[in-house]
Amino acid sequence: MKKAEAGEAVNVSEEIVKLTNNVISQMMLSIRCSGTKGEAKEARNLVHEVTRIFGEFNVSDFILMCRSLDLQGFGKRIEDIHERYDGLLEKIITNREELRKKKPEAERTCEDDMKDFLDILLDILEDNNSDMKLTRDHVKALVLDFLTAATDSSATAIEWALAELINNPTVLKKAQEEIDEVVGEHRIVEESDWSKSSIHPNHHKGNTPSPPSDSHDP
Questions:
Q1: Is the overall model pTM greater than 0.90, yes or no?
Q2: How far is CA 156 from each of CA 5, 46, 153, 209, rounded to the nearest angstrom?
Q3: Please, which residues have CB within 8 angstroms of residue 208's CB and are 6 or more apart in sequence?
Q4: Domain edges within the chain
């Protein structure tokens, strides 16, 4: 918003990743990963490093005799990321457990009480009668999977949608006009604006929009 007002260039891809990272981490851990301090910065860095190492070429995957040599240092990097990630998640989980202990049981079981993904996992972990058995390592692994996979795939989908809009000026103009009408020019889009949008399901009376007639390979 500030850059738009100042007429400065914006790295859209980078901002989309921050957005999706914030949404996912807020739902899962009730923290914003695009912050600049403490847990937020460390979580963002770890997600970035995990995503990057997944996509890097590893010669040991193709030459069997090199698997035990760790020529590119992947083993050391993976171990370092694991230790840092485990320490971060352990701190977050421990803090949440202490917070849950301070909260009365009646509040914790209230249906109206807002819970994030970590709360739900800890409920299962602490319930000895639950049909699903989770360990602390299960909780950490699930959080890692969701943070890394959901951030990257969601950001890619949004970026492709924006690219499609740019390639279709008529549709882009219609979208811009609707945002100006519903949101205005002096604030960013909020979740409550969705219900006022013409693409909201309630405005179509059950009609399902058709998928795009053309497709584009990445």
A1: no
A2: 26, 19, 5, 22
A3: none
A4: 10-167, 170-207
